[in-house]
Amino acid sequence: xxxxxxxxxxxxxxxxxxxxxxxxxxxxxxxxxxxxxxxxxxxxxxxxxxxxxxxxxxxxxxxxxxxxxxxxxxxxxxxxxxxxxxxxxxxxxxxxxxxxxxxxxxxxxxxxxxxxxxxxxxxxxxxxxxxxxxxxxxxxxxxxxxxxxxxxxxxxxxxxxxxxxxxxxxxxxxxxxxxxxxxxxxxxxxxxxxxxxxxxxxxxxxxxxxxxxxxxxxxxxxxxxxxxxxxxxxxxxxxxxxxxxxxxxxxxxxxxxxxxxxxxxxxxxxxxxxxxxxxxxxxxxxxxxxxxxxxxxxxxxxxxxxxxxxxxxxxxxxxxxxxxxxxxxxxxxxxxxxxxxxxxxxxxxxxxxxxxxxxxxxxxxxxxxxxxxxxxxxxxxxxxxxxxxxxxxxxxxxxxxxxxxxxxxxxxxxxxxxxxxxxxxxxxxxxxxxxxxxxxxxxxxxxxxxxxxxxxxxxxxxxxxxxxxxxxxxxxxxxxxxxxxxxxxxxxxxxx
Length: 496
Description:
By secondary structure, this protein is an alpha/beta fold. The chain is about 35% helix and about 25% strand. It has 17 helices and 24 strands. It has a six-stranded mixed β-sheet, sandwiched between helices. Strands 18-21-22-15-23-24 form a six-stranded mixed β-sheet, sandwiched between helices. A four-stranded antiparallel β-sheet has the order 2-1-4-5, covered by helices on one side. Helix 4 crosses helix 5 (about 145-155) and helix 14 packs parallel to helix 15 (about 425-440). The chain is globular and about 70 Å long.
């Protein structure tokens, strides 16, 4: 029996077909993976489920009854909960106030906290966190516990189906493991779970079945235990998995950056490393290992306490202005917070670090700059209306392409890429791998930070592993396995 059934769902926006005859279902006590590239139709399908959009065709059933919510509030009252990638909490309010927001117990206009608190404690216990004090302000919680509060709010509305949209993108491995345990608890309580993620390995960890969307259509579904990863990826992108890691021939050359004994205020710690032209150097490690701190110190965003950085043999005192002038370009892991100016145009973002080529006597030649931006958009296959479109309106994958285009337009000799493939679809990841290979083939050095060991092994020439801010080992990528990368990341030797 299905808890939720969506049959023949179609949706168009003008001439654009977003969904065409999509069918999808999830049973009680089941975790269903909804998989697809950015733009495949996942978000549109879930917005129809949550009442944000009305379908043009098709039917829905919830608990065996016809279901057609008039809006998001109606969907929540019907038992559909949404846990978005970006949390929607009031940080200044307590756990209790956030969980019961809009559902408070009151009398004559006064809150009855004594009457409602047992309900909050019961919800927290269902989630395995009965030890939390409901009076704790949400702002004092870790991201993982804030996400738990969001789930608790859905349970307060007696949710029968909960949708998790890229729930681990901002979580540490520890918090992700705790989330998986919460999802297991919810499944055992008979809820239906829809799980959306680009990480196929975590999909296999938490889900039983899958449905793949491509170009607005459902192109495959089944039991995960019966499906090879290559089969799922081929359904997602419409091509062989062998094409996902395009091998662009390149040959490492002489050392372009030499780091000796580099230490920041907290991390890294006495780190020494050489980066060569025409090389893709991977930086592996767990969250908190100091990977991002290393790039920030190298680029001059964080203060350097000791050690030296030489670029092309010249000692640098790192500041962003000096390092840009020395040929370094950084793509931040925090795309929204500091990687891009979200409200500015594609052309603005793409050219900010090298605008002098489009100006004369302090006057910007907008036409010539926009022409250059169009060229980079075409080269990187950025899907947008044009260079004047605000970055905030682009998909995550296209925003990431703009961030990478900026350092390529800057003509940086050394590309510092911090988690450039996080939160984007498989097809866009493949394009970014190709861009890194082409940059190396052009004689540039690429430093590639990633939490995904498989892509490091396929894309990089060498991989350096950090743990607690220190460099543990550096080897050719072919000499690493995912097991040895993990062992080294957590400080376990291969013989242990």
